Amino acid sequence: MTLIKSISGIRGTIGGRPGDNLTPIDAVKFAAAYGIWLREYSQKEQLKVVIGRDARLSGEMIQNLVVSTLVGLGMDVIDLGLSTTPTVEIAVPLEKADGGIILTASHNPKQWNALKLLNEKGEFLDAKQGQKILEIAEMEDFDFAEVDDLGTITKNDAYIDIHIDEVLNLSLVEADTIRNAKFKVVVDGVNSTGGIAIPKLLEALGVEVIKLYCDPTGYFPHNPEPLKEHLTDICQLVVQEKADFGIVVDPDVDRLAFISDEGEMFGEEYTLVACADYVLGRTKGNTVSNLSSSRALRDVTQKHGGVYEAAAVGEVNVVIKMKENKAIIGGEGNGGIIYPESHYGRDSLVGTALFLMLMAERGGTVTELRASYPSYFMSKKKIELTPDLDVDGILKAMEEKYKHEDISTIDGVKIDFPENWVHLRKSNTEPIIRIYTEAKSQSEADMLAERIISEIKEVAGI
After folding, report:
1. Measured between alpha carbons, how far is residue 64 from residues 19, 77, 103, 239, 343 in Å?
2. Per the database record, which ranges form the Alpha-D-phosphohexomutase alpha/beta/alpha domain (predicted)?
3. Are both 354 and 265 inside the same structural domain?
4. CA-based, 20 to 30 A from 287: which of 62, 274, 444, 457?
5. Burial readout 340-354 (b: 16 or more C-beta within 10 A, e: otherwise)
6. What is the C-alpha separation between 319 and 307, in angstroms, rounded?
């Protein structure tokens, strides 16, 4: 059982002892810390916070605790109920709220939940702000409101529909163009809120939808991380139904993966590549992804005359770099699309609409589209951490070992070899070291990963 307190929020497994897991006491403590920080940060007398959750089993319990804590601090709450991460992000500025909390553990299994914290723009807090909240939580210096000053709760379940309207109004989304293409698409909503939002969006765009695991019960039918080994059912159903492609999202709908007409993974890394290809073909500009993302985005950006830059892993870091680089699209290689015309957050609804536009304009099959892009292959491995491992020492040793190569240390250690690369970093959300590699064949990427893992184990003495 695990509780991870990081600058990006509080994440843990449900049950167990306070301080070791995400218990009701921990949910209240960190919600209170966020509220106290928000009061200091905003300098306003009366505060408003938007709350939404995915469909996981612990969601309603955690939401009740968080909402009641904020009300106890004298804050007004807009309760979206079942929602998506990007929906909460767009709701914050639309409601003129002072912040937001999304209750979701994203791609983690059902025993996990988390508080993901937003500012008044509906964007994730930066490292300094996140650290301040952790400090407040440790001090437990909470000052709750008296009975006449308690906050209010307003329920609003319209925001998924509002979000869809926002997507339909984007300048590069043309509903008639998509409608005329007469697409047939299978959707795997992993029995969470994507099963509500994605089919609604597709139906609004005139797409024929075949639903798979779209009942938001929170009982995930497979591991909710949208990786190939977890997606056998949709791969088979796309072929069986002769669909144009399949769409897979994670429980909070900020990661987007496609299945080709032949029942093969399009590749999470290529979700951003394809959406950027469409946007850059219509609007000249720059792109950003993180250090663990494919070189294919760089190649496509340069093809369109733009400039590509890499940021440290983490949505907030990508957003900061996008603003610096004036990027018109960006995101992360895990299928996260950030399109600033909509908002600065990963959004599978926006990504779906942009991909449909690309397919409608270009014609042909998803298999043919994938074959048109530079072919890179990734290996994504991890090493479980134990308390006695000196992670910083391990990374420093690997940096020293490869000091004659092209190295970045803005986030762990990334070693760029001429024909491939490896990125080593400690996860912000799980007790692991991630080892990502990319090469021009799967076997080469896998071999590089295994070699690096062996070297890490040798350095660590494990």
Report:
1. 20, 11, 11, 42, 28
2. 8-142, 164-262, 270-374
3. yes
4. 444
5. bebbbbbbbbbbbbb
6. 16
Query: Locate tokens 């699309």: which residue?
Result: 337
Query: In this structure, is residue 42 part of a structural domain?
Result: yes
Q: What letter would DSSP give residue 437?
A: E
Looking at the structure, tell me whether residues 14 and 146 fall in a common domain: yes
pLDDT 10s per residue in the chain (462 long)?
568 877 668 999 999 999 999 999 999 999 999 999 999 999 998 999 999 999 999 999 999 999 999 999 999 999 999 999 999 999 999 999 999 999 999 999 999 999 999 999 999 999 899 999 999 999 998 999 999 999 999 999 999 999 999 999 999 999 999 999 999 999 999 999 999 999 999 999 999 999 999 999 999 999 999 888 999 999 999 999 999 999 999 999 999 999 999 999 999 999 999 999 999 999 999 999 999 999 999 999 999 999 999 999 889 999 999 999 999 999 998 899 999 999 999 999 999 999 999 999 999 999 999 999 999 999 989 888 777 788 889 999 999 999 999 999 999 999 999 999 999 998 866 778 899 999 999 999 999 999 999 999 888 777
Give the total number of structural domains in the chain. 3
Closest to 213 (Cα-Cα) out of 166, 256, 249, 264: 249
Cβ atoms 58, 103 nearer than 8 A: no
Among the listed residues 58, 83, 106, 289, the single catalytic one is 106
Backbone angles phi, psi at 245, to 5 degrees: -170, 175
Q: What is the pTM of this model?
A: 0.92
8 Å CB contact between 74 and 48 = no
Closest listed residue to residue 355, CA positions, set 215, 205, 231, 210:
205
Residue 174 lies in a domain: no
Closest CA to 112 of 250, 229, 7, 293: 250
**Domain holding 443: CATH number?**
3.30.310.50
DSSP conformational letter for 193: T
Instruction: Tell me whether residue 294 is one of the annotated catalytic residues.
Output: no
What DSSP assignment string belongs to 64-118?
Answer: HHHHHHHHHTT-EEEEEEE--HHHHHHHHHHTT-SEEEEE--TTS-TTEEEEEEE
Q: What are phi and psi of 41, to 5 degrees?
A: -70, -45
Residue ending a domain, choose from 127, 158, 189: 158
